[in-house]
Design goal:
The protein has one domain. Helix content is 51%, strand content 7%. By secondary structure, the protein is mainly alpha-helical. The chain is built from 7 helices and 2 strands. The chain has a two-stranded antiparallel ribbon with strand order 1-2.
């Protein structure tokens, strides 16, 4: 027999037992400080720094051609994030890309993340831990340094 507790009620509201208190809690990261999830503000500023540097380089050498800007941006992301774990913008903003197991992302992760980053839409779609589809695809996270 079905009881009221099985069906629930609009008065009880949605089940919130599995909702984390802060981004990164489900991944075992601290709420704030070193090693915590990088928030949107830091990410956006780092992206603007990287894009601005790419624009300056393209303006100096390629007459500011839009494809040159995108190519320089993607190359920076692939090489720097893939090898060091951070781009110039990430470094300035104090954030770093790492795998979920704590290791460096690697060139493949840098390449896939850069490709998806250049497509824009996968970056906009984020989960409760502030991980975009580009991070989820390569099992990476962006944390504070």
């Amino acid at each position: 027999m079905v009881e009221r507790k099985d069906i629930g009620s609009w008065l009880s509201g949605p089940d919130t037992s599995n909702i984390s208190k802060f981004p990164g809690e489900r991944l075992g990261l601290p709420e704030s400080g070193r090693g915590s999830m990088a928030r949107a503000g830091r990410r956006i500023i780092a992206l603007c720094i990287d894009w601005g540097l790419s624009y300056l380089i393209a303006a100096a050498f390629f007459d500011g051609h839009p494809n040159a800007i995108l190519t320089i941006f993607a190359a920076e992301q692939i090489l720097l994030v893939g090898t060091l774990g951070y781009s110039i913008g990430h470094r300035i903003m104090g954030i770093q890309v790492m795998r979920l197991d704590g290791g460096p992302p690697g060139l493949l992760a840098g390449m896939v993340r850069a490709l998806l980053l250049c497509l824009v839409i996968p970056v906009i779609i984020v989960d409760a831990d502030h991980r975009g589809l580009h991070d989820k695809a390569m099992k990476t996270i962006l944390v504070r340094r």
